[in-house]
Amino acid sequence: MNKKIDSKQYIYRKLYEMLKKEIVIGAYQYGSRLPSKRTLAEKMGSSVIPVEHAYELLCEEGYAEARARSGYFVIYQEDDFISNRSEWDIGPLPLNRTHEAKSDFPYTVLAKTMRRVLLDYQEKIMIKSPNHGCPELRQALSRYLARSCGIEVRPEQIIIGSGAEYLYGLVVQLFGNDRLFGIENPSYEKIRRVYQAHGIQCDLLKLGSDGIQSVELEQTKAAVLHVTPFHSFPSGITASASKRMEYLRWAEKHGGFIVEDNYDAELTVSRKNEDTLFSLSQNGSVIYLNTFTRTIAPSIRVGYMVLPERLLADFERKLSFYSCTVPVFEQYVLAELLQNGDFERHINRVRRRRRRKGGADCL
């Protein structure tokens, strides 16, 4: 690693990406010590501060860990996923995620945007939405996902719907209700209830300290795996980098699909979004789901589903007749918030506040 980094770009992000790549390909193997901060800074032609930030990100994502007076060591493992930890006792927890009732999104910003949409779009807000959602919102989401979490997709791959529960129903109809679905245990209660209401049989897979236990993944006969890799509700568990790769290897080995429910990922205390399964997948085995309920307000019943290219034809054949369940006015408002930067400014404010508080308020 002797490549100089462009000082005009975020040095620590570039350094983080380079280190992560070298860890994943095995240049730094499990248990090995990473270069000291000072040594790496000299190689990169930068100060020590960007190196510290890059190492912090590696630790937050589960690629490395800091050891007192010893430095940073690689903890990422691609092949050895079997955990020798005992089952993790999560303890008593709430039954649903409706405790997230209060919104931090500035009301004045939302009201201003709504007024602007009324003035700019006028009679357009009275027109029926295209079946998969308004082009303006799908385009804005495509650009936002690319810059925020490395999900590079065409707007045509994004389906707009009235919240996560509605989208769960579309997932069932896409795959059929004769397949076994694997879900986290514990998990958001409505995931199981919605699937079972559609005739799906669910295999409840026990969680360990970093995601679904490896032995559970090995034994399940599920064809579809529904996971919440970041801050799973109600356990608060975030899947490690190794566990995310294990999920993807499970899908590849068994010809299965993964539904990635990322409802809380944007409010991480990290300086960057967690790596998504969708962005890491090489064979199009992941469907990505997210909503604006957590990031803007519980009253915004708008969600979106990102389909891999390989499932687009099936979706069009089976489900393209469905009308969009979200009014065009709300879609235009969200598109404006994404395009003018207000949404991301809000996300960044929340992250900075949580970092100052040590992340305690996100648990």
CATH homology-level superfamily of the largest domain: Type I PLP-dependent aspartate aminotransferase-like (Major domain)
How much helicity do the residues have?
40-55%
What does the average pLDDT come to? 86
Give the strand order of the largest sheet, numbering strands 1, 2, ... along the chain: 3-10-9-8-7-4-5-6
Number of domains: 2
Report the β-strand fraction as a percent range: 5-15%
Cα end-to-end separation: 37 Å
What is the H/E string? HHHEEHHEHEHEEHEHEHEEHHH
- List low-confidence stretches: 2-9, 80-96, 359-363
Instruction: Determine the number of helices (DSSP H or I, runs of at least 4 residues).
Output: 13
- Integer-rounded radius of gyration: 21 Å
CATH class category of the largest domain:
Alpha Beta
- Record field, number of beta strands: 10
The fold-level CATH name of the largest domain is: Aspartate Aminotransferase, domain 2
Oligomeric category: single chain
Largest sheet: 8 strands, mixed
Please identify the structural class as seen in this structure.
Answer: alpha/beta
Second-tier CATH architecture of the largest domain: 3-Layer(aba) Sandwich
Overall 3D form: globular
